[in-house]
Design goal:
CATH class of the largest domain: Alpha Beta
Oligomer: single chain
Number of helices: 11
Largest sheet: 8 strands, mixed
Structural class: alpha+beta
CATH topology of the largest domain: Rossmann fold
Distance between the termini: 33 Å
Helix content: 10-25%
Strand content: 25-35%
CATH architecture of the largest domain: 3-Layer(aba) Sandwich
Radius of gyration: 25 Å
Number of strands: 39
């Protein structure tokens, strides 16, 4: 599984972090690999337990990356390319993220969570049970996967890169906080390692999360996104690289800022901005648009009169990060189940990388507009492609060759069906080996503003490999088909979307290779909602799997990390209207045997949702089982521990073998 690559400034080679699941250690170790361009020769480069997020300094003399020791947290490391071992320069209690070298190659900006003193092990011998209570006064105070936010805000730091090592340097030691506070606030639990010749400055003071630092071209300021209290929007804030200096907020004309980037000459600021309405809370189906504005370096602001929207967010779903490649700008676009890369050049947008791909990161190569992109495809979990500006993409790695050889891959076939109101429904069918007829699994994605893709997906591969025909589609509410498609189910969960899913299933079952009399249904999150909802409406399914489901909008409001806005936005606030869309309100109609899967630490769709569904079915005599995963959150199926992910598949396949047996 390759990450986003870093290309050396000379354009001849790149470094990429490649991770893999280790089922014995139950972890995802990763190392950095050197990739020769353009021939694709790949060789080991570092040997840490988990080395990720590489980036070169602009002068090409150092590689900065994150190194995580086994059992530790990721810390900032630097490798002098003239020779030597990587040096770890920080020791933040909760680790660091997002390293970005300055234009003059002398400093590195990064973000790190700063815990309150006495929490998260910042005082020896003080466990969670001895911590003081959390006094909460806001809606936004925790996040699935991240945990509580109010007592460990993410702040912006700048580290001065040390000069070349000298044989008479002192041994690196942890020093006490200086009077000026340059080494961070120890009182708040932050204790960065102080190395002789290294200075660390914390630039932010507001107690909320900061993310996505970007240097101004002159290296004097940093742009960072600062979360707003009880709002979906973030502020785009400019900080001078001076500890304690005042910050100012950039006015983005009422839009919600996403990623930003500067042109090579520093005259233009490129932005991804989204329109969330007057209250900046109308998020459903919204996609960012590409903007540009003239940058005024002395004032560290852009000229508001030059702010110009370049794309239409109602028809084009941009996503991901901006990458400036020469005079061009590259960005991702969600389109009919794929994540393409599009290029802005000479006043127009064109496709740079398309087909059955799901791009996840691009890095410029030289000044002619060429980029190196990481993406998955129909036959690969992840590989690297070169994207020249005026010729087709060139694949430079084949990291899934062994997977194809040993496990095989099933290529889904694209299909389109028609819903009862004549609306087109787009999706895919994956068939196992053999003539059939095969038992069928209807797979429903989460979100709902997400999308299934024809690229490698372990769910589809596992079920098809076990002998099931897998049917999966992108009904109304999904991303990648325009804003109207994404907003079509607002206030009407379980109506058009359910009709779309069933219409696509019925069209697929017209193929005699699929057994229309043996069909199961499963999905997670919103897919768990739709699975449960369908079982309240029909008994046609042999069995169901409801995973991490959004099952009761009413209780979701008070128990989910996003409950304070998500439920009302999608299903409304009127009690009768909510009940009309709630699976829990119709639980007494379910007769379908159901396996409920949930994670104990799921704060997105809290475990009470799954527990109540399971208990309610048992009380009514419906065959039901509950599979709970300790220590996991909402992302279990995508980033849970390897052993838990394997156990999950084993239980799922055992469930289907009982209710939809295959030979």
């Amino acid at each position: 599984m390759p990450g986003r690559a870093a290309v050396h400034p000379d354009g001849s080679w790149a470094v990429v972090s490649i991770a893999r699941p280790d089922t014995e250690e139950d972890a995802y170790p990763a190392t950095l690999w050197r990739l020769s361009l353009p021939d694709g020769t790949i060789t080991p480069f570092t040997h840490g337990w988990r080395d990720t997020q590489p980036v070169f300094t602009p002068d090409g003399q150092h590689l900065v990356f994150l190194r995580q020791a086994e059992g530790g947290k990721p810390q900032l490391a630097v490798l002098d390319l003239a020779g030597g071992e990587p040096r770890v320069l920080t020791d933040h209690p909760l680790g660091v993220s997002a390293p970005v070298p300055s234009p003059d190659s002398t400093r590195v900006a990064y973000t790190a969570r700063v815990p309150e003193r006495g929490r998260y092990g910042t005082v020896d011998g003080v466990g969670p049970g001895a911590e003081p209570p959390r006094h909460i006064t806001t809606f936004r105070y925790r996040m699935d996967g991240a945990g509580f936010l109010l007592d460990k805000a993410q702040h912006l730091f700048v580290l001065e890169l040390p000069s070349s090592a000298d044989p008479v340097d002192d041994v690196p030691r942890r020093e006490e906080e200086s009077a000026s506070g340059e080494q961070g606030s120890k009182a708040e639990g932050d204790k960065p390692l102080t190395v002789p010749g290294v200075t660390v400055r914390r630039l932010t003071t507001v107690g909320t999360d900061h993310r996505g630092p970007v240097w101004t071209p002159d290296g004097r300021h940093l742009l960072v996104l600062r979360a707003q209290e009880d709002a979906l929007a973030a502020e785009l804030v400019v900080h001078e690289d001076v500890a304690g200096a005042d910050a100012h907020v950039l006015d983005v004309a009422g839009q919600v800022p996403g990623d930003v980037a500067f042109s090579r000459d520093g005259s233009t600021l490129w932005l991804l901005l989204s329109d969330f309405g007057p209250d900046q809370m109308d998020f459903i189906g919204r996609s960012p648009a590409l903007y540009r504005a003239g940058w005024q370096a002395e004032a560290a602001r852009f000229d508001a009169a030059t702010l110009e929207r370049l794309t239409d967010p109602t028809t084009m779903s941009l996503a991901g990060e901006l990458e400036v490649a020469g005079a061009d700008v590259l960005v991702g676009r969600m389109h009919r189940g794929t994540m393409e890369v599009v290029r802005w050049r000479d006043g127009r947008l064109s496709s740079a990388f398309s087909g059955e791909v799901e791009a996840s990161g691009a890095c410029a190569v030289g000044e002619d507009g060429t980029a190196l992109v990481t993406a998955s495809g129909a036959d690969t979990v992840g590989d690297l492609w070169l994207l020249p500006p005026d010729s087709p993409a060139q694949r430079v790695t084949d990291l899934s060759a062994r997977l194809r050889a040993e496990a095989g891959m099933v290529a889904p076939a694209e299909a389109t069906a028609t819903s009862p109101d004549d609306y087109p429904v787009h999706g895919w069918v994956a068939l196992p080996e053999g003539e059939g007829p095969h038992p069928v699994l209807l797979l429903i994605h989460g979100g709902p503003h997400a999308q299934y893709t024809p690229t490698f997906f372990d769910e589809v591969q596992t079920y098809a490999g076990a002998g099931y025909a897998v049917v999966f589609c992108n009904p109304r509410g999904s991303a990648g088909y325009g804003q109207e498609h994404g907003r079509a189910i607002t206030g009407a969960f379980g109506d058009r979307d359910a009709a779309d899913v069933l219409a696509f299933l019925d069209a697929a079952l017209a193929d005699p290779r699929l057994d229309a009399d043996r069909v199961g249904v499963l999905g997670g999150s919103y897919g768990g909602y739709m699975t449960a909802w369908l079982t309240t409406r029909t008994d046609r399914f042999a069995a169901a799997i409801v995973e991490r489901g959004f099952l009761d909008p009413a209780s979701f409001v008070g128990s989910a990390d996003i409950g304070w806005y998500f439920s009302e936005a999608y299903v409304g606030a009127d009690a009768e209207q909510v009940a009309a869309q709630s699976p829990m309100a119709h639980l007494d109609k379910v007769r379908t045997p159901t396996l409920v899967i949930h994670s104990e630490q799921d704060w997105r769709c809290p475990v009470e949702q799954g527990q109540r569904w399971y208990v309610g079915l048992k009380q009514r005599g419906v065959p039901a089982e509950l599979l709970l995963f300790p220590g996991e959150g909402h992302e279990l199926s995508r980033s849970g521990t390897p052993k838990h992910r394997i156990a999950r598949f084993e239980h799922i396949l055992a469930w289907w073998q009982r209710h939809l047996p295959v030979s």
